[in-house]
Amino acid sequence: EIVMTQSPATLSVSPGEGATLSCRASQSVISNLAWYQQKPGQAPRLLLYDASTRATGIPARFSGSGSGTEFTLTISSLQSEDFAVYYCQQYNNWPRTFGQGTKVEIK
Amino acid sequence: QVQLVESGGGVVQPGRSLRLSCAASGITFSIYDMYWVRQAPGKGLEWVAAISHDGSNKYYADSVKGRFTISRDNSKKTLSLQMNSLRNEDSAVYYCAKAHVGYHDKSELDSWGQGTLVTVSS
Question: Does the pLDDT of residue B103 top 90, yes or no?
């Protein structure tokens, strides 16, 4: 099983500032990596796939990079609606696995 | 637009069974792999099971293998999860999710239902 490790667990950011979230895979997942955003009481929402491609309707302030085992989600200027929990997920191998999540909270 | 609606959750005693369903609309259901993902209260996301577009391939997390069975009825646009021998640790919100790309076994999940809560408790 590929273990996905996200860091940090919690990120405190002021509105308007940028944020960088990391995701590490225990073995290569090539670029088969997605990022999801989840707000309290809601289902997850797909943000990025193939490590760096924004899903439909996702603002340009969200960007992704990386391949192999190291991935990054960058939010360039946090808006109020961006405070949420973010999960990475690999879809290269079975079983599919998620990271434990990074909570982005208001500083 | 795509809509996935889960049903069948509830409170069940340990060792008992429950069957979840997911009704899809707004998509050509038969071309997409489908997934179940769960989330225990206050915890992260856990992939549970997946089924290929035609039902020929099924995959399970080790934590549910041998107890849960995923199935689909493409004529009814319905995904199911039969959960047997339930344990306290199976308590979670269960989400139905759709692969983004049709006929592709390596795909992210682009549409999710709102989830159905399963509580396993005596």
Answer: no
Verify whether the Cβ–Cβ distance A44 to B45 is below 8 Å: yes
Closest CA to B96 of B46, B36, B7: B36
Q: Which residues of chain A have pLDDT under 50?
A: none
What single DSSP character describes residue A96? Answer: P
Q: Phi and psi (nearest 5°) for A80?
A: -60, -35
DSSP A52-92: TEEPTT--TTEEEEEETTEEEEEESS--GGG-SEEEEEE-S
Query: Binning pLDDT at 50, 70 and 90, where does residue B44 land?
Result: very high
Asked if A43 is an interface residue toward chain B (Cβ–Cβ < 8 A), one would say yes
Whole-number Cα distances in Å, A42 to A15, A97, B93: 22, 20, 11
The minimum CA-CA distance between B7 and chain A, rounded to whole Å, is 15
Contacting residues of B for A10, CB less than 8 Å apart: none
- Predicted confidence at residue A98, as pLDDT, reads 98
Q: How many residues does chain A have?
A: 107
Structure tokens belonging to residue A82: 């961006």
By Cβ distance, the residue of A1, A38, A92 closest to B106 is: A92
* A51, A70 contact by CB (below 8 A): no
Tell me which H or E stretch contains A104.
Answer: strand A102-106
Residues 6+ apart with CB under 8 A from B87: B14, B120
Asked whether the beta carbons of A39 and A47 are under 8 A apart, the reply is no
